[in-house]
């Protein structure tokens, strides 16, 4: 453009317009940053539910990939692991109902970013839960078992099979911690010594139910389902994570019945149950940081065993027993509620309805007198 065609303006005016334009750009960038921060905060907070009510180990990406595979190959046979992944995806959409549609609408990079933020929230919450139970479980064992010496709450090196109190609770249901057993002809061994020495005859693995999962910490070897998942320690841990740490001491009754409808759904999620039992096992052990394998014990397989106990009941009779167990948990944690029994005729006789009727009658009487 020829210089002669431009109309002269003052440098001051041009500078003001440039500054205004730059300020507008800065404001847009601030808004974009604030929007991005709100999304990050939302995804991280929502992700805190994943380790508690969906899956403890499996990445969300694996659940999504399995659901995609199921959609493409609807009629194909599935493996046990594939069934577990698909159930996990279903639980994910129950816990975070918006996820399914969000995954369909986002671009690949955006969905990857969302999943990373969800994972951050999930890992943070899991760390908080295990950290909370580390000290709480030790104090509960001290109160209930009265070991001598007491378990050191802040020192996990003295937990696990080193401690008699923790060892009895971690001991597999098929053994008794203090019993002698014949190893070979004319050779006997106290079970606790064999476990501590990690001999081949006393392998503690995820293939055994630990005694801390049983009512009164005792198992009937001829009826191993009796009392399983009913220990006081498990109820206290569940309440500490899902209600509040202060409520964990109230386990002898049947709860207070607060918010029973939602809490009933929460208590009956099998993944909640598995999460608690896995965290308690970790708290009783002497490992100081979370890991998947502790010696011969694989926590991921252990978690699967617990979920399978609830979800893969072998037949209708076993399913009835599982449902009864879940109902027992609901009562123990959240109590009973009779709100469904409040029929209209019952409500009409209660003071709120009675007062409303009386007020209306007084109003009508005044109107009639006028």
From TrEMBL:
<keyword id="KW-0175">Coiled coil</keyword>
<dbReference type="InterPro" id="IPR046521">
    <property type="entry name" value="DUF6698"/>
</dbReference>
<feature type="coiled-coil region">
    <location>
        <begin position="12"/>
        <end position="39"/>
    </location>
</feature>
<protein>
    <submittedName>
        <fullName>Uncharacterized protein</fullName>
    </submittedName>
</protein>
<dbReference type="Pfam" id="PF20414">
    <property type="entry name" value="DUF6698"/>
</dbReference>
